[in-house]
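Reopening this one. Same input as before:
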Amino acid sequence: MKKEFIPKTDSIQKLAHFWDTHDLTDFEGELEEVKSSVFEKNIVLRIHLQRDEAESVMKIAESKRISYDDLIRQWVIERTKKISGNAS
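Same output, byte for byte:
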């Protein structure tokens, strides 16, 4: 019988399917302990805006058909790239 190996992929869907159809105990020899975090954690920041500022942001976001938090994130990314000289 051919020995199977744990797939080397970043696809969560492929890995989920693999582990849905396989038993972890069949691969104990391939497992290794990971000491550091595997997944990046996002940092959530809170910002305080005056009512009129917030309403303006929401109106602009609505006109672009995106959420206001996505709009603010785009602005922060654009500005930090410009300031750091990494504008694309």
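So the earlier flakiness isn't reproducible anymore. For the record, The radius of gyration is 22 Å.
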